[in-house]
Specification:
261 residues; alpha/beta; TIM Barrel; 9-stranded mixed beta sheet; two-stranded antiparallel ribbon; 11 helices
Length: 261
């Protein structure tokens, strides 16, 4: 169903639900590091959710934030430092900043959900994906549709989820029953990745999930850490959960089995 949009990806080959390790498993490791990713995979994850910025010398590096303040207590911006400088930064537990290429190469069987966080990171992220031969096992997305579209154009057939603008248009048309319009908006999109609520307003409902499935996309919800919430959302038919606690989610999933074949 979800591979029928001219895609060469194997990203959706397995049956849902999909559990996305949000920045890895950062319970005993710094987020978005090789150790956090290794711990997520050891807990049973297949999907790693991560974020990409570009260094001053144009290398795609894994970081959620544009600066080092939260992760390392420094005000420097990622894009103001060369890779060699970033790799000297101690993030704890023996970890430092890693490149996207290093992460893709280190975990060749993992499926990556990559959020391109900055304009300068588009080309460098695409280069890393190409250089590691990872196009068929990544999903490329961005809050910005310009960034998302640029990356997708350079990676024909890559899996992608909707930007904020496309998501808003799809939600509006789905909510008022304009199924054909919703399908047109999402014609080149494989998934919508959405919060359960936004500014106190409920986004995800069983009715919406059904409408988006009819439009031919998967529905992934972020960031879900409570097993009770995971259970409820899976009961509603969502296809994926983005979670900081992939360890808890995988235990839950082992008791439930596939969502649908």
């Amino acid at each position: 169903m979800f591979n029928a949009k001219g895609s060469a990806t194997r990203y959706f080959d397995g049956a849902p639900p999909r559990i996305f390790a949000h920045r890895g498993l950062a319970v005993d490791a710094p987020e978005n590091t090789l150790l956090a990713f290794a711990m997520a995979l050891a807990a049973g994850a297949h999907y790693l959710e991560t974020d990409v910025h570009a260094t001053a010398d144009g290398v795609a590096v894994i970081s959620h934030d544009a600066d080092l303040l939260r992760s390392a207590g420094r005000a420097d911006r990622v894009d103001s430092l060369a890779l060699v400088e970033l790799q000297k930064v101690d993030l704890g537990a023996g970890q430092t900043y890693c490149t996207l290429a290093d992460a893709l190469a280190a975990f060749p069987e993992a499926l990556f959900n990559i959020d391109v966080k900055a304009e300068r990171a588009v080309v460098s992220a695409v280069d890393a994906i190409r250089d590691t031969g990872a196009r068929d096992r990544v999903l490329v997305t961005s809050f910005s549709d310009r960034r998302r579209s640029a990356a997708v154009r350079m990676l024909p057939g890559v899996a992608t989820s909707a930007s904020a603008r496309i998501s808003a248009a799809a939600l509006l048309t789905a909510s008022i029953g304009l199924a054909s319009a919703c399908r047109r908006i999402l014609k080149d999109i494989h998934a919508l990745q959405l919060p359960e609520q936004y500014r106190g307003i409920r986004v995800i409902t069983p009715r919406l999930v059904k409408a988006l499935h009819k439009a031919g996309v998967e529905v992934h919800v972020w960031t879900v850490n409570d097993p009770a919430d995971m259970t409820r959302l899976l009961d509603w038919g969502v296809d994926g959960l983005v979670t900081d606690r992939v360890d808890l989610a995988m235990k839950l999933l082992s008791r439930r089995g596939p969502l649908h074949e």
